[in-house]
Amino acid sequence: QKEVEQDPGPLSVPEGAIVSLNCTYSNSAFQYFMWYRQYSRKGPELLMYTYSSGNKEDGRFTAQVDKSSKYISLFIRDSQPSDSATYLCAPGGNNAGNMLTFGGGTRLMVKP
Amino acid sequence: NAGVTQTPKFRVLKTGQSMTLLCAQDMNHEYMYWYRQDPGMGLRLIHYSVGEGTTAKGEVPDGYNVSRLKKQNFLLGLESAAPSQTSVYFCASRELNQPQHFGDGTRLSIL
Does B31 sit within 8 Å of A34, measured CB to CB? Predict the structure, then answer.
């Protein structure tokens, strides 16, 4: 079992839909949680990060963390075709290399 | 606003050839990382560095070597390229417990 799991998709939704992207993890030592967005042929770019359980909102994006269930979600409201990308969850904690552990990513397609 | 710059962007090698991938960051970050990304495998850590002059092995280090002689540069070397090393390579840097910043990758094909 991988340490961080994501459904690879693809997830196809119509423009304007609410999107829910999910991630589960097994390591209780993870202390902070990041979401990256990766467009085709580009490097991952940071979308959101949070250091605690609960919700964090930034514009159309909301990150939700439930440490008790080891479950992370990213919600996208009013989805746009420009949101079409692969979304990677990446929890991290206090380790020697200050490393993040990346999920395999979920590919999202938003159709006009 | 360069951030993390990777050189080259594309390269084709023959089996057995050697090459070095260069990563440069202008954010004065302590930590630097090399990943490979393959379909269905996600990002896998090859080597990392916690500061100038230091390197350490990641998840998939075999066949690769790294050096961090200057804080801003992190080099990834392939001594004898193999077809299994065909991949997209990403470099990233960060400060302690802060988000990682990625370059746009090097696409490497080994024939």
Answer: no
**pLDDT above 80: residue A95:** no
Task: Say if the Cβ atoms of A43 and B100 lie within 8 Å.
Answer: no
What whole-number distance in Å separates Cα of residue B72 and Cα of residue B18?
Answer: 23
CB A79 within 8 A of CB A18: yes
Residue-by-residue pLDDT tens, chain B, 111 positions: 679 999 999 999 999 999 999 999 999 999 999 999 998 778 999 999 999 999 999 999 999 999 999 999 999 999 999 999 999 999 999 988 788 999 999 999 999
Q: CB-based contact (8 Å) between A96 and chain B? A: yes
Q: How far is it, in rounded angstroms, from Cα B72 to Cα A72?
A: 33
Contact by Cβ (8 Å): A13, A83 = no
Q: What is the DSSP letter of B85?
A: G
- DSSP labels, B19-51: EEEEEEESS--SEEEEEEEETTTEEEEEEEESS
Decide: A13 and A79 in contact? Cβ < 8 Å: yes
